[in-house]
Amino acid sequence: MADLGVFADAHTVIFERLLLGTPERVWRHLTEPELLSHWLGIALLEPRVGGRVELHVSDAIVSGTVLEHDPPQRFACSWRARTLREDLDGLVVFSLEALRNDTRLVLRHTAHHVRSAAASASHWHARLDALAARLANRAAPDQTASAAEVLAEYAARLPA
Questions:
Q1: Residue 42 backbone zone (phi > 0: left; psi -120 to 50: alpha; other: beta)
Q2: Distance in angstroms (rounded) separating the CA atoms of residues 147 and 145
Q3: Average pLDDT in the 153-157 region?
Q4: pLDDT band (50, 70, 90) for residue 112
Q5: Is 80 exceeded by the pLDDT of residue 20?
Q6: Quick one: pLDDT band at residue 89, thresholds 50, 70, 90?
Q7: CA 61 to chain centre
Q8: Most distant CA pair in the chain, distance
Q9: Backbone conformation region of residue 131, classed left if phi is above 0, alpha if psi is from -120 to 50, else beta
Q10: What interhelical angle do 23-31 and 117-135 show, nearest 10?
Q11: For position 57, what pLDDT does the model report?
Q12: Distance CA 14, CA 65 (A)
């Protein structure tokens, strides 16, 4: 299990991961629907500012708009997850930085609803573990089990 993300405030979690591969390789896994499907969900992505984002992730359908598209350094989109229980809005920003032959990825997810921050953090944690495994040509851990494993820790770390 990788390091836990850090809450900047009650709405925002920040993850930092060192990933195997160049920023260009990692960028493809963030923006190409076929590669996204291996770690995040089935995707439709129009790779341009103003483009549409649609993901089928676990029990949610996520829709949004590309807000920043600066290959291979920065990608941001609005994030609206619709589940059977509720709609959850937010903002997701990926930043990439080359470190020799590896890439430092920083993911910042701001959830507009505090009640969803711990769950969002645990899900991103599991998905980033799956991305790291994919980039390292390893089998990805079960994402549902991984998210459940860290949910209580994120809930305990959530600022009041």
A1: beta
A2: 6
A3: 94
A4: confident
A5: yes
A6: confident
A7: 14
A8: 44
A9: alpha
A10: 130
A11: 84
A12: 20
Q: Provide the 8-state DSSP code for 13.
A: E
Of residues 101 and 133, which shows the higher confidence score? 133
Question: Token pair of 113, please?
Answer: 């609803």
Which residue has 């009650």 as its token pair? 10
* Residue in the block written with tokens 């590669």: 35
List the one residue out of 41, 31, 136 whose CA is nearest residue 73.
31
Give exposure, 87-111, as e/b (b: 16+ Cβ within 10 Å): ebebbbbbbbeeeeebbebebbbbb
Q: Report yes or no: 64 and 82 within 8 Å, Cβ to Cβ.
A: no
Look at the block and give the residue holding tokens 């969803």.
Answer: 116
Partner residues linked to 37 by β-bridges: none
Q: What is the DSSP string of 29-88?
A: HHH-HHHHTTTT-EEEE--STT-EEEEEETTEEEEEEEEEEETTTEEEEEEEEE-SS-EE
For the record, the structure tokens of 69 come out as 């598209």
Burial of 51 (0-12, 13-18, 19+ CB in 10 A): middle
- Looking at residue 2, its pLDDT comes to 66
Give helix 117-135 / helix 143-157 axis angle, nearest 10°: 130
